[in-house]
Specification:
The structure holds two protein chains of two kinds. Chain A is of the alpha/beta class. Chain A is built from eleven helices and 13 strands. The chains are: A alpha/beta, B mainly alpha.
Chain lengths: 310, 274
């Protein structure tokens, strides 16, 4: 659904806090209608980048435009077209579900005539119609998250920004949320997502920017990243924590790349089953073995030498 | 889902730049309306109890001893000070709690800051809403003073605008303090013990400041309460004020308000862009 129209463009973007460099000169472009993800561990600079885009944090250097405007000069003009879902919900606890949607519409200067039917639509979207008169503090984590997203949609923003949208949610709540976000994507809303979950990034993003320590490690579609930085399949084997390191050299003879993790060894191959077969021919019998498709986790491990969630 | 118009059609940033603070007022009023019984009972009960105990009880003693204070009945002398005190208290409550809540407890100011509404507009909206509630409370208070016979003439009602001025000047300054404070508990302790209490006791509330030893009068000079009380007494029953002092009182209140707003704006901006 992405078009050629560039909505966000950063050139050599830098953010420093004293001696600490949160963003170390990054370049990226986000096009209209695309779903763009920032993937990286905590402290990679994802949220800082998001805040600069949201015009709530000034950069230290470089250039950035959102909808063609500089956020430091045109804060309100840019914010008028963003829907922001922060990492921690900041709903108004004193108000009900419905009132939270209403007042947020008012913050965008929308008329009551527009907001009233919009609330109904958003309550349906967030599956909160039966909770409309409930105070926010009584909602579950997943409901609060859906309400925060619904709230961000009240002004029909050009760009919806989601910072770690499903962190802290149970699997069912995550899937409901993904479904809702997918629908928005289908409507052509440009999505900007930060996440440290690979499955989330794979599900939701057309294009990903892998970040670590304030820099961009790679940028491509999820499939493209996997293709470039990993093999088709991965074989995970366990020989017991003391033997893993011991057998590693022998395993390396079979494949070009292995990763020795504390609890298991990852072996990268295009045909996992065949590799397992060669293992047993060599007289190596792991305690457990698993063949799976390569994922973004493998890409990240390759790019940074670290796992995404430590 | 209905047809999407999109924010490019729907949202007018220029309009929000002009009127954004009123949306913040609207949010505050939505919250006030939930506490109407509490607001009304506080607005009625506090002055009622105060007027019975101090205005009538102490007043009777003073009136019978010396025929009142400053040439008028004790309650008439006291009324502008009580109204200003109530205004300060109300304005303070309505700026301190929302500010701490907005920045710290539920971070709702950060949610507003994600919209086209600016940090300054948030501060303006919070103060404006606080003054709306203050207006309500001092009007109720004024009515009760009137019913107790505390106004010597219709001019007595002029104590309401002076009280509101005290609320605005002090409210702006305290809002800045609340945004600046890192530690809530400490903030409340300092505010209650070292600011509110001395102001109330040493601002010529119950007696004329001139009867205090000179070494303690400075507290009154710094206090917006003293300045508005003097203005209130001047307007309501003709308490003597020189033209110079009249101008000093007005200038003091204006400066405190202007400084307070500037301070608050800076703190709000700092907190929201950190």
């Amino acid at each position: 659904m992405a078009t050629h129209e560039v909505l966000i463009e950063a050139k050599q973007l830098v953010k420093r806090y004293g001696d600490f460099t949160a963003i170390a000169g990054i370049d990226f472009q986000v096009r209209k209608g695309e779903s763009f993800g920032f993937l990286g561990p905590n402290g990679a600079g994802k949220s800082t980048t998001m805040r600069i885009i949201a015009a709530t944090l000034n950069r230290t250097g470089g250039e950035i435009t959102i909808l063609g405007k500089d956020p430091e000069k045109f804060g309100p003009e840019i914010k008028a077209h963003l829907g922001v879902v922060p990492q921690t919900d900041n709903l108004d606890q004193a108000l009900t579900v419905e009132e939270n949607l209403y007042i947020y519409g008012r913050y965008f200067g929308l008329s009551k005539k527009f907001i009233r039917p919009k609330i109904e639509e958003l309550l349906d979207f967030a599956q909160l119609a039966d909770k409309r008169d409930v105070k926010v503090e009584a909602l579950s984590g997943g409901m609060k998250r859906r309400l925060t997203i619904a709230r961000a949609l009240v002004s029909e923003p050009e760009i919806l920004m989601l910072d770690e949208p499903t962190t802290g949610l149970d699997p069912q709540a995550r899937h409901i949320l993904w479904d809702r976000l997918f629908r928005l994507k289908e409507q052509g809303v440009t999505l900007l997502i930060t996440t440290h979950y690979m499955d989330e990034a794979e599900q939701l993003c057309d294009r990903l920017m892998v970040m670590d320590k304030g820099s961009i490690m790679a940028e491509d579609s999820p499939a493209g990243l996997i293709k470039t930085y990993a093999t088709k399949e991965v074989v995970e084997v366990r020989f017991g924590s003391d033997r893993n390191a011991q057998v590693a050299p022998q395993l390396h003879e079979l494949v070009e790349r292995i990763e020795v993790l504390p609890d298991r060894i990852l072996m990268y191959a295009d045909d996992g089953e065949e590799l397992l077969h060669s293992l047993s021919q060599k007289g190596l019998h792991p305690l457990t073995s698993l063949v799976r498709r390569s994922s973004l986790e493998d890409v990240f491990l390759r790019l940074t030498g670290r796992t995404l969630i430590d | 889902m209905s047809t999407r118009q999109g924010s490019l059609v729907l949202v007018d940033a220029e309009k929000i730049k002009r009127r954004g603070a009123f949306a913040v007022v609207e949010a505050r009023v939505m919250i006030f309306l939930k506490y109407i019984p509490g607001l009304v009972s506080a607005a009625v009960a506090n002055p009622f109890l105060y007027l019975v105990a101090v205005g009538i009880g102490v007043g009777k003693l003073i009136n019978s001893h010396s025929g009142g204070v400053d040439g008028v009945k004790y309650l008439t002398f006291l009324a502008p000070a009580l109204l200003s005190t109530a205004a300060i208290q109300n304005a303070m409550d309505e700026v301190v709690f929302p500010t701490l809540e907005g920045f710290k407890w539920n971070k709702s100011f950060f949610a507003i800051n994600a919209t086209p509404i600016s940090a300054k507009q948030i501060a303006n909206g919070v103060l404006l809403a606080a003054l709306l509630r203050t207006l309500f409370s001092v009007t109720v208070y004024g009515t009760i003073v009137f019913l107790f016979g505390g106004f010597s003439s219709a001019r007595g009602w002029l104590a309401l605008p002076t009280a509101l001025a005290a609320g605005a000047a002090f409210g702006a300054f305290i809002m800045g303090m609340a945004a600046w404070a890192k530690n809530d508990d400490q903030f409340f302790m300092i505010l209650g013990r070292f600011i509110m209490m001395p102001l109330f006791l040493f601002s010529g509330t119950f007696y004329q400041l001139s009867t205090m030893p000179i070494c303690l009068r400075w507290i009154g000079w710094l206090s917006p309460l003293w300045h508005t009380t003097e203005l209130g007494r001047y307007l309501t029953y003709g308490h003597h004020l020189s033209l110079v002092m009249l101008l000093v009182h007005i200038a003091y209140l204006f400066s405190m308000f202007a400084f307070g707003m500037k301070f608050a704006h800076r703190q709000f901006e700092r907190r929201l862009t950190k």
